[in-house]
Structures are given as structure tokens and as C-alpha cells.
DNA sequence: AAGACGAAAGTGGTTGA
DNA sequence: TCAACAACTTTCGTCTT
């Protein structure tokens, strides 16, 4: 087992808080999230969504940032939650709430609005609950650190959602976020970068394979084509064909090739549309894939079979 | 006629002096 | 702070099916 972190590497504070549900440690002083050895995310939100007594999760001993703030923001379940807390936690609850109120009613009102907006966008994109909560936490931290000033609330919400998606490996493209939130793509990108940098959130570079499933189903491609595409992606990554390029471009090219191989041809235009890139980008990646991975043979093979 | 291909010029963002 | 730079887009003409 890894040893417990005792100090925040960012600010040196010792006021750390362990969120059992997420398997993370959060520094209460600066908001840094210290990953306690990357947990398997899929497992995480399966556990989140299914079974497991809800009430316990919502009200259990660890008071998370998210829950606390959500309770405040929505004014739902505050009282019933209180019943389930023991004395010490109840005191903590009141203390925190008072403190929060004191800061400013403006912040509170802002949060309420923002969380509503966040919920709207999130459900529009059909994002899992765990991502929504992560985004809410990010947004809350951003507000507490005064990062929203000078930016529209909506754009920060969008940025928080984008970051949360990335962290949970269910990436959505900036285009999709943009469509759902009505904020310009570059604006979302800007606030996303700003917020993650200021909060010290570590975001892994998104993996092209994470996009495959969604694109494939949008194009109605078979499961075999999907797994072939992922196989291609893995090979491509081995020879560093993927570094520095946009993940969506690579994903769509791999999907395009794999569709050809399996005789489920889609036009470059079709693939380009669902992936939110241009045909040209697909062509460039596609060309590289053919050259580096000697895939021509496989394509020709299926062509002959068809005759 | 539609799709695939590629050249050329433009855009927004990163990097390094 | 600015210029060089890489990735990606837009546009458009040509070739292929």
C-alpha cells in the first residue's frame, strides 16, 4: 500500500481531506487534488451508479466539498441530511455553513445559478452523474478562488465540465460542449486551461481510444470495426504516430481505415462530421497510418473478397 | 456526379529567445 | 513580449470510381 500523503506538495499545508468515494486526497488550503494512485474510473462510476445504498453515499461521515456545496446550492435535503450526522459532524456542518454564508451572499447566488446551468448542460450531453459532480466541485473551487471574475459564469461552467470529462476519461469534444452550452469553442478552451492551471488539476492527455466507441455508434459501425480501430490506435501509439496530433483526428482516421478493412465503408465526410474534424485532417492521418502500419494489404484483401 | 486527393493560404495556440 | 512554428482548417482544382 502506498504511504499516506502527509503534506500538500503544492502549498505544504497539512489540512488534507480524504474523499473515499473518489479515492482522492484534497488539500483544503489550496484545493489541490492529489491522486492516490489512479483508481480505475470505470469501476468507480459503476459503483456510483448502481446499487450501494444511496443514502449512505449522500450523507456518510466524510463531508465532501461537493456534497456540502450542493446542499447549499440546491437547498434540497439539508434538514434530512442533518439528522444522519452525529454531533461532531453536525457542528462542522453548521460551522462551515455559517462561514460560507458570511463570505458573501453573492457567491452563493452565483453558485446556485451556476449549478443549475451545469445540470442543464450535463443532461444535454448525457454525462454520467460522477462527471457532473466532479464538475460541480471544480466550479465551486473556482468560485472560492475568485477565478470567475472577468469571465462569464457559463463559460466557467463549460470549462469545468470539459475538465471533468477529461478526468473521467469520457471526453467530449470542445465542439459538443460548445453546442450544449452556447459558449464559443475558444472561450471554453481558454477558461478550461485557466481554471485547471490555477487549481493545479492534473489532466491526462486524452486518449484517442476514448472517442472510438462514441464515434462508431454514431456511424453505426460494427463491434469488430471498433476493436480493429482500437488495435490500430495501439499500434500507432507504439511508433509515436499520435503524439502532438489532435486525438479526435487520429481516432477518426483509425475508424475510417478500420471501416474500410471490414467493408463497412463510410465517406470521409461522414466520419469527419461526427468527429468534428475536417476531411483533410482525416486524410493526413489516414495517409500516415497506411504508410507506417502497412495496412494496404488488409484493405486490398477485403476488396478482393467483395468481388 | 460524388467522393477522394492534395496544394496553398489562413487561423489560433504554443514555445523559446 | 514577439516571432517562429506546428497542427488544423478552408478553399479550390484535379483525379478516380
Task: Summarize the model shown.
The chain contains 16 helices and 3 strands.
Topology:
Blueprint: E1 16-19, E2 24-27, E3 33-35, H1 41-49, H2 54-59, H3 65-74, H4 78-83, H5 87-103, H6 105-124, H7 129-144, H8 153-167, H9 174-181, H10 185-199, H11 209-218, H12 223-238, H13 247-261, H14 268-275, H15 279-293, H16 296-306
Antiparallel strand pairs: 1-2, 2-3
Helix pairs in contact: 3-6, 3-7, 6-7, 6-8, 7-8, 8-9, 8-10, 9-10, 11-12, 11-13, 12-13, 13-14, 13-15, 14-15
The protein binds a DNA duplex (17 and 17 nucleotides) through helix 15.
What is the name of the CATH class of the largest domain? Mainly Alpha
- CATH superfamily of the largest domain, by name, is Cyclin-like
CATH architecture of the largest domain: Orthogonal Bundle
Strand order of the largest sheet: 1-2-3
Number of strands: 3
Q: What is the C-alpha radius of gyration, as a whole number of Å?
A: 22 Å
The whole-number mean of residue pLDDT values reads 74
Task: Provide the low-confidence segments as ranges.
Answer: 1-5, 19-23, 35-78
Strand content: under 5%
How helix-rich are the residues, as a percent range? 55-70%
**Biggest sheet statistics:** 3 strands, antiparallel
Structural class from helices and strands? mainly alpha
Amino acid at each position: 500500500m502506498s504511504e499516506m500523503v502527509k503534506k500538500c506538495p503544492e502549498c505544504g499545508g497539512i489540512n488534507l481531506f480524504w474523499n473515499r468515494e473518489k479515492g482522492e486526497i484534497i488539500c483544503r488550503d489550496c484545493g489541490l487534488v492529489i491522486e492516490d494512485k489512479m483508481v480505475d474510473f470505470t469501476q468507480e462510476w459503476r459503483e456510483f451508479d448502481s446499487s450501494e445504498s444511496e443514502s449512505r453515499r449522500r450523507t456518510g461521515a466524510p463531508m465532501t466539498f461537493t456534497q456540502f456545496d450542493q446542499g447549499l446550492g440546491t437547498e434540497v435535503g439539508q434538514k434530512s441530511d442533518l439528522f444522519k450526522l452525529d454531533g461532531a459532524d453536525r457542528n462542522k456542518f453548521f460551522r462551515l455553513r455559517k462561514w460560507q454564508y458570511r463570505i458573501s451572499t453573492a457567491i452563493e447566488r452565483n453558485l446556485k445559478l451556476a449549478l443549475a446551468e451545469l445540470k442543464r448542460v450535463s443532461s444535454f450531453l448525457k454525462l454520467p452523474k460522477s462527471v457532473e459532480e466532479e464538475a460541480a466541485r471544480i466550479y465551486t473551487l473556482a468560485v472560492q478562488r475568485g477565478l470567475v471574475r472577468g469571465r462569464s459564469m457559463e463559460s466557467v461552467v463549460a470549462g469545468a465540465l470539459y475538465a471533468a470529462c477529461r478526468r473521467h476519461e469520457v471526453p467530449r469534444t470542445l465542439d459538443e460542449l460548445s453546442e450544449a452550452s452556447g459558449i464559443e469553442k475558444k472561450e471554453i478552451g481558454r477558461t478550461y486551461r485557466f481554471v485547471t492551471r490555477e487549481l493545479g488539476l492534473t489532466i491526462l492527455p486524452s486518449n484517442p481510444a476514448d472517442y472510438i466507441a462514441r464515434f462508431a455508434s454514431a456511424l453505426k459501425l460494427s463491434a469488430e470495426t471498433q476493436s480493429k480501430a482500437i488495435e490500430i490506435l495501439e499500434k500507432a501509439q507504439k511508433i509515436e504516430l499520435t503524439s502532438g496530433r489532435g486525438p479526435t483526428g487520429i481516432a477518426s482516421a483509425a475508424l475510417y481505415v478500420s471501416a474500410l478493412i471490414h467493408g463497412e465503408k463510410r465517406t470521409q465526410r461522414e466520419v469527419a462530421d461526427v468527429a468534428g474534424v475536417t476531411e483533410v485532417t482525416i486524410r493526413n492521418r489516414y495517409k500516415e497510418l497506411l504508410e507506417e502500419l502497412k495496412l494496404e494489404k488488409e484493405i486490398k484483401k477485403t476488396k478482393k473478397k467483395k468481388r
